[in-house]
Design goal:
The protein is mainly alpha-helical and about 120 residues long. Strand 1 and strand 2 form a beta hairpin. Strands 1-2 form a two-stranded antiparallel ribbon. The protein has six helices and two strands, in the order ααααββαα.
């Protein structure tokens, strides 16, 4: 049982979801699919990569359960399946109280990191 009382998500599934999310191209593909189903050609448009490269990314996303692929005649549009994202989010929420408590009253470490990055950007300009 997780700290929040939820049933734990499968370790293998969480591993696959976080591995899939570790790539910026795959995150961009998921963002695009949040707007609706798309074919490989449509997903490849904004990237400087081949359709076979996008297909490999789709296979990783599909293996993680993050997308489903339909068959419409010769087309195979992909669509987002957000359930694994919800499971990953629930897993992360369990640790939110930890990182807040460990900062001993300071700002959230994630927010502190964002502020540091912003400050670095402003110093460069």
């Amino acid at each position: 049982m997780e700290p929040n009382g939820n049933k734990p998500a499968s370790s293998e599934r969480l591993d696959a979801v976080f591995a899939a999310l570790s790539d910026a191209t795959r995150r961009a593909i998921l963002a695009r699919l949040a707007a609706g189903p798309a074919t490989v050609a449509q997903l490849a448009e904004p990237f400087a990569v081949t359709q076979p490269a996008i297909s490999k990314h789709l296979k990783v996303l599909e293996a993680a359960g993050l997308i489903a692929r339909d068959r419409e005649a010769q087309r195979r549009p992909s669509r987002l399946d957000a359930a694994p994202l919800a499971e990953a989010s629930e897993w992360l929420v369990d640790y939110r109280s930890y990182w807040k408590a460990s900062s001993a009253g300071n700002a959230d470490p994630v927010e502190e990191s964002k502020l540091k990055k912003k400050k670095k950007k402003h110093k460069k300009h």
